[in-house]
Amino acid sequence: MCGGGDAVTHDRRNPEAAIAEAAKTFSNWGRWGDDDRLGTLNFLDEGKRRQGAALVRRGVSFSLAQQFNMDGPQRGWRRRTNPVHTMLDTGADAALGTQGMPHGIGGADDVVAMPLQCSTQWDGLGHIFDHGKAWNGRPAELTVTSDGDLVTGIEHMASQIAGRGVLLDVGRVVGTDGELPDGFAITEEHLQATAADHGVTVERGDIVLVRTGQLARVRRGGWGEYAGGPAPGLSFTTAGWLHRSEIAAIATDTWGFEVRPNEFDDAFQPLHQVVIPNMGLLIGEMWDLEELARDCAEDGVHEFWLAAPPLPITGAVGSPVNPIAVK
Question: Which pTM was predicted?
Fold first, then answer.
């Protein structure tokens, strides 16, 4: 059950009813008007960005992106592949004089082909539907077509995602040797206990990062089923906390954000179905939080300036990102 007076039924034999109840209880449809394209990013305003910028004291920065290369975690699920990087021009072409440029100048060019959600990324608001409805109650078939997301394309968020970041290192606080086992469901109580341990408060408009430690584990033992298999993650019961806290966005170091296997006998990503099309919450996945987490543990500071804009790819329902945390 969810705490804080916003409980929903969680009968693992009946995901349909649980999802429907949570979707209705935690809906933000119409909250920011019928034409809204940002969802919970509306909580991240100018004052929140000033607050985040004021957190920079040491000037040390951390990239929170995994590398984008052919050795990444993807296994072909839903035709997702790892990035394919191809050189169009190289130093050899320049040295051999085959580029046809004057006065000895030469250069290198390259191209990359990849699914937009193959590594560190944001799920856009057009990524998930609930019974044929997209974010804000729009018909899915009119919102996302073969031409892309015609309404809530990720490009609308390109200038928005910068503000106060908060790391909740649940793996370090609740887990064993800094890591949670696969299948571990992170509850609201775990999130609150972690925040209390860190001496940090999650506030309206924050970008919350949840470290499980799974990425550290797969780096030791190989990718395995990281892309789509069992994983620690947020419990379905955290939907109430995600709604009540009024955070702008949340990201984890796992492939799917929520616990896998999911907490129902027959379901697939039920928390996604609630929080993206109904709550309008921005979700990040496969973020590399290891170096940042070590620094936070050493200096005891778990809040920072965070800039994580998506690539403004017109009509995209997700985007690669290289998030930068600055302390």
Answer: 0.95
